[in-house]
Design a protein that fits this description.
The protein is α/β, with parallel strands linked by helices and 447 residues long. It is built from 15 helices and 10 strands. Helix content is 49%, strand content 13%. It is elongated. Pathway: Porphyrin-containing compound metabolism; protoporphyrin-IX biosynthesis; 5-aminolevulinate from L-glutamyl-tRNA(Glu): step 1/2.
């Protein structure tokens, strides 16, 4: 028996997990994670997203147990309390909340929309996106856009980069200070822009690719310089603040880079970490990571509570829509398969009956039509009640009834061996995407 696939999800995010646990989950990036999941038994689709705040994966399987088993390898070394497991409905709702910024460390932040869209494209490139996840993720992106267009959830909201600057300002006086931003990506750019609104006198942007660092440096009005990562040991000791936000898989700031520093604040907002944790033990060096930003962002979260309630109303509305569509599709697939199997049997038996009647003296066209009409009527009347029951069952989330119906009305029962003593197949049918035959009772019930 084959059903329309259901989503199973897993999330390791900042609300339950530490930075190290988030880093430990998910393996070697989105594409590798998706490819690994697709290779597992029963997985038809896969999607993953990995940011500094979360590492999550979603699979589509015909049986939910296959989804749970497939995701066991996603965070095997992460403690159970840091892992959240999601069923189909929870996965859809969670993706909408993520896209809306309700699950972000900084409530309502905008960067997650781009990160979710990028993760979708990467998962698609890895062959992981099919009809179920396409509907789910694109719906989440739509909800995220609605949240920002119809509410003030992101009005004045800070990013992780600006939260890092705010944390630094509480620790040291930035007046006429020097700041080093390591990384020229989205988070590094946001950090540089936020620093531009502080009294620092100099911003240094360090990046593996210097032209990218120069581009960020040109975007700020504060005197700024672009340097390669190889110059970190030269620029960091003279700085007051370092904000690290690269995409490097290994730390880029180590002990030798801070030698000679005097009262240096380092804030690591990268995932994986950019700064060796051991630097926290150095004299005159204060190190913060993403976990430390929770307090900084709490006030923003509290001021957005009213907007968050409005966003949740949007999510409830859109979740109802996509679930209803999903339920209809599951029921309609089962009904289509049931009618397709019955129509194949009907066609075979009509041909057999007509052949026998013709051998007994021939049939007129009118008589042949009468036989065919009789067969159509029998199929329609026999399956009308199961059709209604299947749709009612889908509306009530009663998937066991759908499974039972498919076993009783096996769409492939016309392939069973013929002859005395022939019995049911005992196997699950796989009807695929078969349309309801034109003119059948199932089609009439849609009208």
């Amino acid at each position: 028996m084959k059903e329309t696939g259901a989503i199973t999800g897993i999330s390791v995010a900042y609300s339950r997990a530490t930075v190290d646990e988030i880093e430990a989950a998910g393996g070697d990036g989105v594409r590798a994670t998706v490819s690994d999941l697709l290779a597992r038994d029963g997985v038809e689709e896969a999607f993953a997203i990995q940011t500094c705040n979360r590492s999550e994966a979603y699979v589509v399987t015909d049986r939910t147990i296959d989804g749970s088993v497939a995701l066991e390898s996603f965070a095997p070394e992460v403690r159970g309390g840091a892992v959240r497991r999601l069923d189909h409905e929870e996965s859809l709702e969670h993706l909408m909340r993520v896209a809306s910024g309700l699950e972000s460390l900084v409530l309502g932040e905008d960067q997650i929309i781009g990160q979710l869209r990028e993760a979708y494209e990467e998962s698609k490139s890895a062959g992981g996106i099919g009809p179920v996840l396409k509907d789910g993720v694109t719906k989440a992106l739509h909800v995220g856009e609605r949240a920002r267009n119809e509410t003030s959830i992101n009005e004045g909201v800070v990013s992780l980069g600006s939260a890092a600057v705010r944390l630094a300002a509480d620790e040291i006086d930035l007046t006429d200070g020097s700041a080093v931003v390591v990384g020229a990506g989205e988070m590094g750019t946001l950090a540089a822009r936020t620093l531009d609104d502080t009294p620092v006198s100099e911003i240094v942007v360090a990046n593996r690719t210097v032209p990218n660092a120069a581009f960020v440096a040109e975007e700020v009005e504060t005197p700024a310089e672009a340097v390669p990562l190889a110059d970190l040991a030269t620029v960091i000791p003279d700085a007051d603040l370092v904000i690290a936000a690269t995409g490097s898989p290994d730390p880029v700031i180590r002990s030798e880079h801070v030698t000679g520093a005097d009262r240096l604040v380092c804030i690591d907002i990268a995932q994986p970490r950019d700064i060796e944790p051991a630097l926290a033990d150095r004299d005159k060096v204060t190190l913060y990571d993403i976990d430390a930003l929770e307090d900084v962002t709490r006030k923003t979260r509290e001021s957005r509570e009213e907007e968050a309630r409005e966003v949740e109303a949007i999510i409830d509305e859109e979740l109802d829509r996509i679930l209803e569509a999903y339920k209809r599709k599951r029921a309609d697939n089962a009904i289509s398969a049931m009618y397709a199997g019955a129509d194949r049997v009907k066609a075979r038996e009509v041909d057999r009956a007509v052949s026998k009647l013709e051998a007994q003296g021939g049939l007129t066209d009118e008589q042949r039509e009468t036989v065919e009409d009789l067969a159509d009527a029998l199929v329609g009347q026999l399956l009308a009640a199961p059709t209604r029951s299947l749709r009612d069952a889908a509306g009530e989330d009663d998937w066991e009834t759908i499974r039972t119906a498919l076993r009783l009305f096996d769409p492939e029962f016309d392939t069973l061996p013929e002859g005395p003593g022939a019995s049911g197949s005992g196997h699950d049918a796989a009807p695929g995407d078969i349309e309801v035959p034109p003119g059948s009772v199932a089609e009439e019930l849609d009208d």
